[in-house]
Amino acid sequence: MTQATLTASDAAALEFYQDHVAFVDGFGLTNLDRPERLLFKKGRQLMEAALAAASKPATKRVPYTDQEVQFLVTAYLNAGAHMTDTLNAFFAVFPETEHTRSSVWQKIQRIRTLDNAYPMDTQWDTDLQVRAIACGMSARFA
After folding, report:
1. Cα–Cα separations (whole angstroms), residue 122 to 109, 125, 132
2. CA diameter of the chain
3. How many Å from the N-terminal Cα to the C-terminal Cα in the chain?
């Protein structure tokens, strides 16, 4: 849950919880009126949910193998620089990949950045792996 998704009542509950957590730890919830206890409980639940979400491990980053990048460069060249065909070819050959379509698209963009036919296409920086594999493959074709 981000701050942008908090409603006004959620923000009020969190603020009430933070202001009264030490009091409740010392004296218990019985010293609060029922509406305050409910507000405190809601704030505690929101705080616990936020802490649980923050403690979850980040999504696992899956590095590209050299074989995958070599295939992307070859497919890009064979498809005549058609990026969608390259994307579809990748998922046809690697159907069980853990890479997302967005990630593969970005990798293809990095390959296209090296393509002299598109000098204005500089949206992506190339990574070392793409550059090294593309240069190695160009030496084989020269």
Report:
1. 9, 7, 18
2. 82
3. 54
Do 46 and 74 reside in the same domain of the chain? no
Q: How far apart are CA 9 and CA 133, in angstroms?
A: 55
Whole-angstrom Cα distance, residue 62 to residue 40? 41
pLDDT grade for 142, boundaries at 50, 70 and 90: very low
How many CB atoms neighbour CB 55 within 10 A?
7
In a domain, 60, yes or no: no
Q: How far is 97 from 90, CA to CA, in rounded Å? A: 9
pLDDT at 123 over 80: no
Full domain range(s) for residue 74: 66-141
* pLDDT tens figures, 32-90: 899 999 999 999 999 998 888 777 776 678 899 999 999 999 999 999 989 999 999 99
